[in-house]
Amino acid sequence: MKAGIVKKIMAFAAATTIAISMVGCGSGAADKKQNSLEAIKAKGKLVIGTSADYPPYEFHKEIDGKDQIVGFDIEIAKQFAKDLGVELEIKDMAFDGLLVALQSDKIDMVFSGMTPTDERKQNADFSDLYYTATHRFVLRSGDEASITKMEDLKGKKIGVQKGSIQERIAQENFDKDSIKSLDKVTDLILDLKNNKVDAVLIELPVAEINVQKNEGIAIAKNLEVKDPDGGTAIAMKKNSPELLAEVNKTIKKLKDEDKIKQLVTDANKLVD
Ligand code: ARG
C-alpha cells in the first residue's frame, strides 16, 4: 500500500517534471516563434494564392498538354521564390477567398492583382505597388455607341468579381439589384456574351485581352473609372515585416531593371 502511494507520487512527480519541461520548451519556442519569412524558408516552399482568371496578371494556359497557371504576377512570384531559394506552389481559388486563406495559413502570400485598400490593409500587409491600371467597362459590341457615361449604365446589369474593388465601385454607383457578383472573371465574360449581364467592370489590361480573345465584346469608350486606390501589390499576413522587406527587395530589383513591363508584354503574348 505504502509502496503503491510512493510509486504514484513518483509517477506524479515525473509527469510534473515532464510537463514543466514541456511548458518550458513551449514558451522558449514561442519566444523564438518563426516569422513568416523563416517559416517559408524552413519548409522550403512558398505557397501563393491567386485567382487565375485575370490575364495578363494570372491565367490558365495549356503548355505541353498540361494545364498551367501563368502571367506576370506568377513570374514575379517565381522570381521571389528563386530569390529565397525555395520552391513555388500555386493555389488557384476564388478571389474573394484569398485573404481568408491567408488568415488561416493555407497560403503564405497573395499574388492576384490585388489592390491594397485601407480596408484590406487592416488584415494584411502589402508590398510596394508594382503595377497600376485603370478600370474599364467591357460591353457587347455595338453598345459602345449608346453607353458612354455612367448614367447610360443605369438600369443595365453590371457584372463584377466578388470581393473586388470593382464590386465596391459598382455598389457606389448602381442599385444593388443591378449588380451581379461572380467568383471568376471568366464567367463574367461568358455572362456578357450570353446577355446575362450588360457590362463587366475590370482592369484595363484584362479588358483589352478579353476583347482581343473573344468576339462580340468591346471596351466602353470615354468611360474610365477613376480610382484613387488603384494599383497592385502582394499581400501577406499582417505583421510580417521580414517577409515584407524581402519581397520589396525583389520588386525593387525588377523595377530597377525595368523588368515588370517586359513581364507584362510576355504574359500578353502567352494568351491564346
Ligand atoms: N484589383 C482588383 C482588386 O484588388 C481586382 C483584382 C482581381 N484579380 C484577379 N486575379 N481576379 O480588387
Automatic annotation (TrEMBL):
Signal peptide: none annotated. CDD domains: PBP2_GltS (cd13620). This is Amino acid ABC transporter. Keywords: Signal. InterPro entries: Solute-binding_3/MltF_N. SMART domains: PBPb. The keyword Signal applies. Residues 45-272 form the Solute-binding protein family 3/N-terminal domain. It comes from the Bacteria.
